[in-house]
Amino acid sequence: MAYSLGIDASTQSISAIVLNLDDNEILCECSVNFGENLPKYNAPNGFINGNATGEIFADPLMWLDALDILFEKLQLICDLNKITSISGAGQQHGSVYLNDKWIKTCENLDPKSSLSEQIAPCLSRKYSPIWMDKSTTQECQEITHSLGGNREICRKSGSVAIERFSGPQIRRFYKNHLEDYPQTKRIHLVSSFICSIIAGKDSAIDTGDGAGMNLMNIDSNTWDVDLLKATAPGLLDRLPNISQGNTIIGCVSGYFVRKFNLNSEAEVVIFTGDNPSSLVGMASSSPGKKVISLGTSDTFFAAMPETLSDPNGFGHVFGNPSGGSMSLQCFLNGSLAREKVRKKYKFSWEEFNQAIKDTSPGSNGNYMLPFFSPEISPLYDGQNPILEGTKSFENWSNPKLAIRACLEGQFLNMKIHTKWMKSNTSTIYVTGGASQNNTILQIISDIFQSDIKKSEVTGSVALGAAMRAAQHCMKIDLSILENNFCRFSNDVINPNVDNENIYLEAESNIKTLLLTI
Ligand code: XUL
To answer: Quick one: fold of 283-454+487-517?
Structure first.
């Protein structure tokens, strides 16, 4: 019996999926929600605000406590000794700052104590800035200036300088914490940090996640000396190596063997970013498919036949774990915006869905850019959605229309901001928590005039990780794993052609509204 384990260290939770490679079935799934299971960290959604505007952090010790709980839970539902391959993925861009105690501690983790207790003395920065952070506008400008402009930084790194990307975040840390930067001997991404813990060995960063840092050269897949120099002094020594996503780092750490009965011969493949991992879990590693992931943020991504970049500078090129590149556009106001508008009216999800059924496509000519927090596609610094329509709509006194207009605004904005990818396939594959909601999916289908197929496994990130582990450790062909594990529901959602023109008109109105921000 061979099992493969995939771990997803995401914004709000840490989850796992175990595949039985002999029976071709998903053996079990398990999740630890930070807010619910670890209330002592005061991070109900997995993050905390910093003191300065735009700062958003997470506590790496919270991730480690959650990892211990995850294995405790997994042990109760699965024979962990049968796991032969492990990999994982992390929320992209977040960075973890470690001192000179890190490598030794990581290599000698003691099962008698918790992970967080042992790693706490290794942190040279208490909190990790994560992908929601928008505090590095100045650092982005400085890096862009050093490189000689947006075009050059985009050509080298696959994106213009982006506030949430790790390079600008590292520069801000270097500038504002001059006393702590010299103590910092290693800077990891969330993915490579958790991988190091699992393998008990300082891990490389893979090319998929490495491309989300504004530090890696996307042609050579190596750290780019100009980008490093523009970011912070002595950075090369502080970064791990970059490796291809098929790299096996070694066997699982003795910590997990002794504490949770893992097999000492279970091999670990280096981790990647959550979006590159989801590309694998959605059976979309080869060009020709596009994916929407409806999570904390909504993302739209696809494997690229040729490397294109977004002329507006909001989109990104990341490494595709199966080789080549993937394009990605991230929308910060995803699930949290849908939650905000639902909670504003104290609606249950049933009432939310009913509101959509009770209103018509186009929201009677009322439009919303539902940016409840700063947005990144496009850049928007405000905290308030922009509404245009009747007085009662603009005053938020029509709950049902507000709910429909919020969803329509989200996906019209997504359509507008993903045109640069030039992908003209007729089917969109969807994943993530909100992909279970057919009412939302029908709106997406009508706006894009595309068929929608939803993944039957909501955890496509963890699934992709388990598949990568099996592919590289057990040498199982990816197409076989896709056939066996990537299941899409039979009920394809088809676009209502009668709504095509309504949404084309709405799209041009949303474009006009976007010009006002
Ligand atoms: C992608 C991005 C988010 C995070 C968190 O660029 O910022 O999707 O990966 O999921």
So the answer is: Nucleotidyltransferase; domain 5 (3.30.420)
